[in-house]
Specification:
- By secondary structure, the chain is mostly beta strands.
- It has no helices and 11 strands.
- Strands 2, 4, 5, 6, 9, 10 and 11 form a 7-stranded mixed sheet that branches. A 4-stranded antiparallel sheet has the order 1-3-8-7, with no helix packed on it.
- The model has no long low-confidence stretch (mean pLDDT 97).
């Protein structure tokens, strides 16, 4: 059974930074594109960012461009999201997900597994 375990969520002040991570296991991590999605309270799931298998190409939602950086370490089967200049609207449960289909690199992906999520709260 595929496992994705997120960590690193925390309470952070507006303007602050945070790095969330995802440990993957029980599948060949380097065979898959990976992405981060988030869900804010009372809202639907929102795509945040995607990285290709090698970590060479990355894609971001407009809300994340210039502030977030996705990265991966295939040797350690881990995925990361560095978030800077955080704002209240970034408050959400952040999930890593295994991508199974890329319909549109600007944000239309299919996934088959997600972790349990890690909570990021931006508040003063």
């Amino acid at each position: 059974q595929v496992q994705l375990v997120e960590s690193g969520g925390d309470l952070v002040q507006p303007g602050g930074s945070l790095r969330v991570s995802c440990a993957a296991s029980r599948f060949t991590f380097s065979d898959y594109w990976m992405m981060w999605v988030r869900q804010a309270p009372g809202k639907g799931l929102e795509w945040v960012s995607t990285v290709d298998r090698e970590g060479t190409n990355t894609y971001y939602a407009d809300s994340a461009k210039g502030r977030f950086t996705i990265s991966r370490d295939n040797a350690k089967a881990s995925l990361h999201l560095q978030m800077n200049s955080l704002i209240h609207e970034d408050t959400a449960l952040y999930y890593c997900a295994r991508v199974t289909r890329v319909r549109n690199r600007s944000g239309d992906y299919e996934d088959d597994y997600r972790g349990q999520g890690t909570q990021v709260t931006v508040s003063s």
